[in-house]
Write a structure and sequence with these properties.
The chain is mostly helical and 252 residues long. The two termini are 19 Å apart. The model has no long low-confidence stretch (mean pLDDT 82). The protein is globular, with a radius of gyration of 17 Å. Helix content is 76%, strand content 0%. It has one domain. Helix 1 runs antiparallel to helix 4, helix 1 packs parallel to helix 5 and helix 1 packs antiparallel against helix 6. The longest helix is centred in the N-terminal third of the chain and has 30 residues.
Amino acid sequence: MPAIIIGILLPLLGTMLGSAFVFFMRKEIPDRLQKTLLGFASGVMMAAAVWSLLIPSIEMASHRVLPAAVGFLAGMGFLLLIDELTPHLHLGAQKSEGPRSKLSRTAMLALAVTIHNLPEGMAVGVVFAGETHGLTLSAALAVSIGIAIQNIPEGAIISMPMHAEGNSRWKSFLIGSLSGVVEPIGSVAILLLASALGVALPYLLAFAAGAMMYVVVEELIPEAAEGRHTNLSTIGFAIGFVLMMTMDVLLG
């Protein structure tokens, strides 16, 4: 039980640590660093989606690919629907997308981060629930640690622009940190339903993978590939992908 509690809280702690960058860095995060962090986050999430979620989903379904395919497409579709219906800002965007809204830029940016963090929280809950269906505790912790690492740059990328927009350092830190609260909430919700998951677990693993992959393709990679220093994004992606892959293999 203590390991599960730690695993659930690690992603939130990663977000808080990243948000704390606002206290000791300039108002605007350097472009080179932002590109590197975006690429790194993309690599971590993509590797986690494949090694920690999709492959276990296929193995858990007796190597049948249908549950993984259905769950993956459902996860992509779910995030696409939320993206279309919810007024928010894409990372790094200056104008809002989605339905017209009177929400402030800060509120829309917080919505965007919440959309990102929801599938990550679900993923942590699913892998810990999968302990009773063949997944190891170390593999589940690998997912949690990987997402926590990914949340550090994401927290910085969110809190620092908020401060640059005129918000105080503490307000920027608190909003950035609170955006990660949805992750343990999502994890706990999945764990409470663990006894009822049963044969649906392969679908849920793939669903979380699809939702995470949507965030990578729709948000992180386009922002990382825009403007200058895109080579740093590529390097960051490679490092993040290999790090998460190695953690999953060694701990799993």
